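Quick one, T. Sequence first:
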Amino acid sequence: MQRKHVPIGELYDLRAVRVLVDDVAACYAALGIVHATWVPIPSEFDDYIARPKRNDYRSLHTAVVGPEGKTLEVQIRTHDMHRQAELGVAAHWKYKEGGGPGGASATASAAFERKIAWMRRLLESAGEEGALAGELDSELLEDRVYVLTPKGEVVDLPAGATPLDFAYHVHTDVGHRCRGAKVDGRIVPLDHKLRSGDHVEILTGKVSEPRRDWLVASNGFLASPRSREKVRTWFNRLDRARNEQAGREMLEKELRRLSLLNASLAPARDRFHAATDADLFVLVALGDVGPHQVGRVLLEHERATREPVAATPAPAPAVRKPRGGRASEFTVEGVGNLLVQIARCCQPLPGEAIAGYLTRARGVSVHRPDCAAFQRLAAAEPQRVLPVEWRRGGSAYDVGVELVALDRKWLLKEVTNVVAQAGVALTAMNTEHVRGGTQVVLQLRLRVADYGQLTDVLGKLAALPGVEQARRA
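Structure tokens:
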């Protein structure tokens, strides 16, 4: 009554009966019998067989004045129409394939029926988002998410899907031209995890320009293998020289973050079965191998080559707490009871290659091997260089990050959102305009757990629109 804004006397479907017949001809025959037996209400007759609804619903609807002057709605349809109306097209196919009760897997069948029932409620609850939202967390199945297009159509995606997966599901060209997304009217990053019931809108550009970092699994842009294959296919169509150059740039960017820019790629070639460095670059460009995977292999190889040198009969003694009151994060081989501190010039992070330098008054200063200050000191007094290793611990470390980007609206908001979503603390920020005000340099101070977390944050910052460079300061 409230939805239709009519009095109870004009509701003709309070009492209803459904008639199922074998074929369409029998539908109209039954309709003739109903109208001949009781007085029909002309305004309540609908022929959805001749004119199906947009969702392909088919049936004959009529209302009559039945016994005792009470109105009665009558629905007439075939058995095939009834199965499609009640269960949907997918379940109708399942019935035709013999997947009904008594099938091979009763559990799978019951789960399938629950999915269909939930989707029906989702479609029927248009305009009742508040009531629907209360049921989502308790009733959704964990392996899929069901989101809505701007037109209200339901899209079935794998769990963990992103707006980019949604775009590629709609159409390959929509995915290639995707530049942003809105979820429930709010702009979100492309790696945002969708939840069932979300209304998703894709913002597209005029040119198909998928990004290669979409293929990097650790960036979290694509959860669907099908979407990832569409991006890979697009890049496969490019010539080998372009793929090789792009892969080289992606890998050098990652190795620079890990202080492994000059390391040999031979261990990675052997691990990923690449005949040459060029073949490895192509694998990286096409997303078959991630830059993080190559960096991890080279880092493991470097640690393995240092182990025989580090092995000595005497156990490594514990070291004193460095300044700041924290427990020592380092083991200095062969030397005990020394003050150990992180060098301010390069600020190494846990997991990175490090080396120690014995200063005259401040104990052992820990540097990265490629640090210019360390190389200068080591060249002058090589006898002061000491082997240093990280200890396992849960401390956090401050590190500087520099972003070079086009100055645009919402840039700071998107940068801080990426940092917050990565679980990293932002302790300081400074901005400076260059190139006549069209470009901005952001100096960030982040508190990270290790170099892996830093690499993840840098990758996501570099993927933001308009960001030309994201690197460690």
